[in-house]
């Protein structure tokens, strides 16, 4: 038994012959989704973590313990007092969180889209509204999966190695130390602190985020021509679509993220509503937008990297699996 690799033209010709024009695009396998999501998550963390650290530090400082005046001040003081690598505090937690989130989110999203497609009596593609709804529902699964890693990430980010002239109640040497101390003082439930706020953030976020991504991708395809597929879009177009989707999503849900960060970095038994009321009563409406500039600055490069890594890995895996062998 012997085989030979077909020429690239033959691969393309066979693929086109086997796929009618109206057929739905091929869906990735679970292994392909997981691998691509991990690559996208790595790109997301490397590009976005410094901005995320600044965002969380701004979100969690209270009115009577104001340390930073804004995103730039936080960035400068953090680097000056703790070194550049302090901006990557919580990176291990962030990577675990984002990788887990992407794997669960994209796998669940694929399954929900397939189920929704099955409800169509004809083979018409899902509308933008349906695609966005699938993303929102998938957020239920991803939010539950990432909450422990989110708690660890946020607590490490606000744990300061030097004094800034105010009391720092949380101090951990690393992710494992944070997990051990959290479970010891608060029980296993402490790792799921703020789950409600994560759900309240991620359901609307993924509805807007994935819906916006699909909308921008479709607009780019229409601009290029009716027969253009997503795989034919270039790197700049994928980066732009991912960046815009991330920026739009974060702009919509940021106040909920402030509540989540406060809830996950406190050891007190509080609810999402009680935290929101306390913030509003003590600091006013603008406190819900503290750190927003850092979040939006992070959103574009981080999510551009996320979708670029995901789409490029996906294309590579599909090309690898599309190699045709003639068996004698």
UniProtKB/TrEMBL annotation:
UniProt-recorded Gene Ontology molecular function terms: L-ornithine transmembrane transporter activity
A GO biological-process term: mitochondrial L-ornithine transmembrane transport
GO cellular component term of the entry, any: mitochondrial membrane
Subcellular location: Mitochondrion membrane
Annotated membrane topology: Multi-pass membrane protein
Subcellular location, principal: mitochondrion
UniProt keywords, alphabetically: Membrane, Mitochondrion, Repeat, Transmembrane, Transmembrane helix, Transport
Solcar repeats: 28-115, 126-219, 233-316
Xref: InterPro entries: MCP, MCP_dom_sf, MCP_transmembrane, Mitochondrial_Carrier
Membership in a protein family: Belongs to the mitochondrial carrier (TC 2.A.29) family.
PANTHER family linked: MITOCHONDRIAL BASIC AMINO ACIDS TRANSPORTER-RELATED (PTHR45624), MITOCHONDRIAL ORNITHINE TRANSPORTER 1 (PTHR45624:SF12)
Protein name: Uncharacterized protein
Species in which this protein is naturally found: Lotharella oceanica
Lineage: Eukaryota, Sar, Rhizaria, Cercozoa, Chlorarachniophyceae
């Amino acid at each position: 038994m012997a085989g030979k690799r077909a020429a690239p033209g033959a691969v393309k010709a066979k693929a086109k012959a086997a796929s009618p024009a109206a057929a739905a695009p091929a869906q990735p396998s679970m292994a392909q989704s997981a691998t691509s999501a991990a690559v996208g998550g790595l790109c997301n963390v490397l590009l976005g973590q410094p901005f995320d650290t600044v965002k969380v530090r701004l979100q969690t400082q209270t009115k009577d313990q104001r340390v930073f005046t804004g995103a730039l001040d936080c960035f400068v003081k953090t680097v000056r007092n703790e070194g550049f690598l302090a901006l990557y505090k919580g990176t291990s937690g962030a990577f675990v969180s984002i990788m887990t989130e992407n794997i669960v989110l994209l796998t669940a999203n694929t399954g929900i889209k397939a189920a929704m497609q099955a409800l169509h009596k004809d083979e018409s593609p899902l509308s933008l509204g349906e695609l966005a709804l699938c993303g929102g529902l998938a957020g239920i699964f991803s939010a539950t999966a990432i909450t422990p890693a989110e708690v660890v990430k946020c607590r490490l980010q606000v744990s300061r190695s030097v004094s800034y002239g105010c009391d720092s109640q949380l101090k951990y040497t690393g992710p494992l130390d944070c997990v051990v101390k959290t479970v010891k003082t608060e029980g296993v439930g402490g790792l799921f602190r703020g789950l409600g706020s994560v759900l309240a953030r991620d359901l609307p976020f993924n509805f807007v985020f994935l819906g916006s991504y699909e909308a921008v991708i479709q607009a780019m395809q229409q601009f290029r021509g009716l027969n253009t597929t997503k795989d034919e879009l270039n790197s700049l177009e994928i980066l732009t679509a991912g960046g815009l989707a991330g920026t739009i999503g974060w702009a919509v849900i940021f106040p909920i993220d402030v509540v989540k960060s406060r809830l996950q970095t406190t050891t007190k038994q509080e609810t999402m509503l009680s935290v929101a009321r306390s913030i509003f009563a003590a600091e006013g409406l603008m406190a819900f937008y503290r750190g927003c500039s850092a979040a939006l600055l992070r959103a574009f490069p981080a999510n551009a990297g996320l979708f670029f890594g995901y789409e490029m890995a996906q294309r590579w895996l599909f090309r690898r699996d599309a190699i045709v062998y003639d068996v004698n």
